[in-house]
Structures are given as structure tokens and as C-alpha cells.
Design brief:
Helix content: 25-40%
Structural class: alpha+beta
Low-confidence stretches: 1-5
CATH superfamily of the largest domain: PurM-like C-terminal domain
Shape: globular
Family: Belongs to the AIR synthase family.
Number of domains: 2
Oligomer: single chain
Mean pLDDT: 91
Pathway: Purine metabolism; IMP biosynthesis via de novo pathway; 5-amino-1-(5-phospho-D-ribosyl)imidazole from N(2)-formyl-N(1)-(5-phospho-D-ribosyl)glycinamide: step 2/2
EC number: 6.3.3.1
Number of helices: 11
CATH class of the largest domain: Alpha Beta
Distance between the termini: 75 Å
Keywords: ATP-binding, Cytoplasm, Ligase, Nucleotide-binding, Purine biosynthesis
Main location: cytoplasm
Largest sheet: 7 strands, mixed
């Protein structure tokens, strides 16, 4: 092959010419350092900037049989709305909620977290805003943010596009792990309120908005604010209050369901034992306006709403029936959602009945009127 002699590039192709700005990445790190450092507990070794984060696990020696718990997740297509609105400091709260609260539901205390941001172009202020939100949420959950990565992917993502993911590690005593093995028929299901849509079902939300032409700056009377402000409401992070409740009321909570992708029944079924069904009463709480407005706007069938969105229920606790009042008193806003029963097949024919969801051969759950 013969190369042309009229190549006008004076010094060849550079990394910057390929779309990667190393200096912008360095500026982003400088902007986020203070927020990240604020999450560091005495167990964090080495500070910010190493190839790997270090965490002193000496405290684990005090456990009789420590079980390490880990979880990883992202925020999903909610980031597309953040990008449209050019608001980036709330997405980090969504990320921490999705990751850390999956650890808390088994009774584990989250210890540390790492994050990953992929973007088409590093805009230092934008990256710093994302990480600042992650750090703020980590602080509220008592979790150290000990590492992360920002990767610039020109040509794969648009200049203003990004995605985020994270992973966390926690610890729990083996004999204190919460789960279906503790639940019995007669347990009471207690609901904890969600802050809104959280971070699930946004593909449905975006499809509804695209089909109807509703803009994010539209003022919606039922919300008392714009549509964009409502749908970007950050995910509630339950870690701190839930860990306090578990500690203050040992033995009261048998299992916890984090209501994420798949909706209420599918996630509750995962934390109940085979042969039981969690029966939840729709009349026990008021569904927040955002679910009704979007559902009615898109003419979304009730069953589809309940299998996509949390409907205002962020967590569900299976509780010892003799300790229900204690739990309700300990968590403001909690309410009695339903109960766990022996599954005698009475609900099996109902289309709202869910059994063995998420690949777990566990119990069943249903929403009833």
C-alpha cells in the first residue's frame, strides 16, 4: 500500500485529536476530591488517587463469623432525563440507593463503595457534580467512597452522554443475616414510603413522554412543580434509618425487600419462603400523584404499573407480629401493608399473583383490593 505524501497532519494523530482529554480528567478529579474525602472513615487507607482503594478490615476480627455482602448496580435510563435537564448532582443519590440498600436488606452494614462513570467527553464540572451526589449519599449512609473511575469514550457515547455504575461491600454476622429463612406465616408486612419513582421504570416514563409530547419543563398541578423536577427526584437512601431500626429492635425484622425493577409483588416474593404468600392491600396506602399522572397519561394498565413502578412503596419489611407497633414507632411514615399467609392456592388464578420472581424459587406475593 502506498501512503500519500500530502498528509497535512503536522505531528501525527494525538490522543486529544481522538477525542480524549486527559487534562480535563485530571481537573475533574481535583474538583471532586473534597467531596470524596468527606466520606472517608478512619478505616480508609491512602486517600484519593491510588490505583485501588484500601480499607482497614481490622474491625472484622471482632465478628464471630463475618459474612461479606456485595452489590452492584446502575441508575438506568433516568440518566437520560438528567442529561436533558442538565442537572447532574442528584443521579449519585440514585446510584447509592440502588447499590447500598441492596446490601442493607440482608442486615449487612455497608463499608465502602466504588463508582464508574463512562462519558463521551469529560466535562470537569459535570463529572464533579455526579461524584458530589454520590459522596453526599454515601455520607448519609455511613459508607466510604474509596475509589472510582471516569472513562472517556468518544465515538461510543455522545459528547453530553454518560452512564454511571457502582459497587459496594458490607458485612454482617452469619447468625444475623435477614431473609426468607426467618419468615413465617403470620408475619406482618410493613411498607416504607418511597420518595417517588426512584430509579426504575424510566423506559416506560420516557416512552409515555415521547408518545404524548409532554416536555420536562411543563408545570403539573398535581406535583406543584415541573414534570422534570418530579421525575428527577432522587432515590431515597434507606441504609442509615434501616440499620438503626435493626440494631434497636433485634429480632423484630425477619426479611426486607428493596422494591426496585419488577415492581412491588415480584420483589416481595423474593424474600418470602416457599409455601407462603405475601398479601398486600392496595387500600393501605395512597399512591403518590406521579404514578397516577404518568399511568393515566400513558393509559398504562394497573397490572403493568404495579409490575414496573414501586407505586410509592420503597421497602417492605416482614416483621414479627408481636413487634409491629415497635417497628411502626421506630420508622416515621411506615404503615401496615399486609401480611404473610400459608399459600393454599386461593390466589393462584389471579393475574396479579407472582411466584418465584427474579429467578428465585421462593414465596409468592399479590396485591389485593
Amino acid at each position: 500500500m502506498t501512503r500519500s505524501n500530502d498528509d497535512s497532519r503536522p505531528s501525527g494523530t494525538t490522543y486529544a485529536a481522538a477525542g480524549v482529554d486527559v487534562e480535563a480528567g485530571d481537573r475533574a478529579v481535583e474538583l471532586m476530591k473534597a467531596a470524596v474525602s468527606a466520606t472517608h472513615t478512619p478505616q480508609v487507607v491512602g486517600g484519593v488517587g491510588g490505583f485501588a482503594g484500601l480499607f482497614d478490615a481490622t474491625a472484622l476480627k471482632d465478628y464471630r463469623r463475618p459474612q461479606l455482602a456485595t452489590s452492584t448496580d446502575g441508575v438506568g435510563t433516568k440518566v437520560a432525563l438528567a442529561q436533558q435537564l442538565d442537572i447532574h448532582d442528584t443521579i449519585g443519590h440514585d446510584l447509592v440507593g440502588m447499590v447500598v440498600d441492596d446490601i442493607v436488606v440482608i442486615g449487612a452494614k455497608p463499608l465502602f463503595m466504588t463508582d464508574y462513570i463512562a462519558c463521551g467527553r469529560v466535562v470537569p464540572d459535570r463529572i464533579a457534580a455526579i461524584v458530589r451526589g454520590i459522596a453526599e449519599a454515601c455520607q448519609s449512609a455511613g459508607v466510604a467512597l474509596i475509589g472510582g473511575e471516569t472513562a472517556e469514550h468518544p465515538g461510543l457515547l455522545g459528547d453530553d452522554e454518560y452512564d454511571v455504575a457502582g459497587a459496594a461491600t458490607g458485612v454482617v454476622e452469619a447468625d444475623q443475616v435477614l431473609g426468607a429463612h426467618r419468615v413465617q406465616a403470620g408475619d406482618v408486612l410493613v411498607g416504607l414510603p418511597a420518595s417517588g419513582l426512584h430509579s426504575n421504570g424510566y423506559s416506560l416514563v420516557r416512552r409515555i413522554l415521547a408518545d404524548t409530547g409532554w416536555s420536562l419543563d411543563r408545570e403539573v398541578a398535581e406535583f406543584g412543580r415541573s414534570l422534570g423536577e418530579e421525575v428527577l427526584t432522587p432515590t431515597r437512601v434507606y441504609a442509615g434509618p434501616l440499620l438503626a431500626l435493626i440494631s434497636e429492635l433485634p429480632g423484630a425484622v425477619h426479611s426486607i425487600s428493596h422494591v426496585t425493577g419488577g415492581g412491588l409483588s415480584a420483589n416481595v416474593a423474593r424474600v418470602l419462603p416457599q409455601g407462603t404468600v405475601g398479601v398486600m392491600r392496595r387500600a393501605s396506602w395512597t399512591v403518590p400523584a406521579v404514578f397516577d399522572v404518568l399511568g393515566d397519561l400513558g393509559r398504562v394498565p394497573r397490572l403493568d404499573r404495579e409490575r414496573t413502578w414501586n407505586q410509592g412503596v420503597g421497602m417492605v419489611l416482614a416483621v414479627d407480629p408481636e413487634r409491629v407497633d415497635d417497628v411502626l414507632s421506630a420508622y416515621p411514615g411506615a404503615w401496615e401493608l399486609g401480611d404473610v399467609r400459608a399459600d393454599d392456592g386461593a390466589f393462584g388464578a389471579d393475574e396479579a399473583y407472582v411466584q418465584g420472581a427474579k429467578g428465585v424459587d421462593a414465596g409468592a406475593a399479590i396485591l389485593t383490593d
